[in-house]
Amino acid sequence: MEQKKRRASVEDRILIVDDEEVICNILARRLTREGYSCVAAHNGKEALRHFYKDSFSLIISDIKMPEMDGIELLKKVKAVHPNMLVIMVTAYPEIDLALEAMRLGAYDFIIKPADMELVVLSVKKALEKKRLEEELDVYHKNLEKLVEERTVKLQLAYRTLKKAYLDSVKVLAEAIDAKDPYTRGHSDRVRRMSLRITASLGFTEERMEILEYGALLHDIGKIGIKDEILRKPGALTPEEYQTIQEHPLIGVKIVEGIEFFKDKIPMIRNHHEHFDGKGYPDGLAGETIPLEARIIAVPDAFDAMASLRPYRSAMPLEDILLEMEKYKGKQFDPKILEIFLREKIYKL
Ligand SMILES: [Fe+2]
Fold it and tell me: Which of 85, 96, 113, 169 matches a 20 to 30 Å C-alpha distance to 154?
């Protein structure tokens, strides 16, 4: 209680406005006894001068006063300080004015002759409400800060997690490429070139991310193909070629039970489809082939031709590009191939 009184005397300044000196004095004396610091003014104009110069926690104002009445004072105070607490003191015949003051944002009104206990109670209630509002405001600000800090931490954790996920899938892709030592780094090169194509097509970040994983995993089905066939130094027999052609569907079987891989399946299944419908495994043609699969098909074929094989050296770049041009609209989606060649994406 002692502490509360000390706090009130330091923080809570009350501006008392009444044209009757006696009322001002009675109010000031009583409120000073309660630990508040009081300043008196005898009309609205004088009160405004104090209000503009100093800071107050609360105003107690008469309504009928010379020069500037309480209603005018209330309007001017609220225009500058909408949350200012104002208690109106009024004679009973002016009750309509008191109600108007309430509509204009006054906190309370007291009928003259003012019961001092009622005034003190109203002042205490008003200042308590103000204190609670301020505390709530501080609490909200702290909460906002806390939420902001937590959001930053969460975003960081999400980015770290995403990177760890991508790194693990890259390791898996390296394991796929390691089945065939001549295609080391193939999946990652296909990933980088495919991403460049999607940038030209204006893919969203989310769609690019799906493609990134799909490109890394497109050959995951090769895990299920015998090494003798994958590493065979010479040309493949028709049966061996048929076995190799099973890798897209084997890939689908490997990933189909995992929720995260569901949206990458079209790339795993259809990256060997040809634009003219002569590819495998589904023989899809044109735009019925999922766009992501049509994208991957271009760098996939380029990188295969650019890689050294046991039975041939890497093809010169000009020959590869000529060969790819030859298959525009047959093996490759012409629009994707155009982007690939025009933007020299093969130079990545
Ligand atoms: Fe493949």
Answer: 169
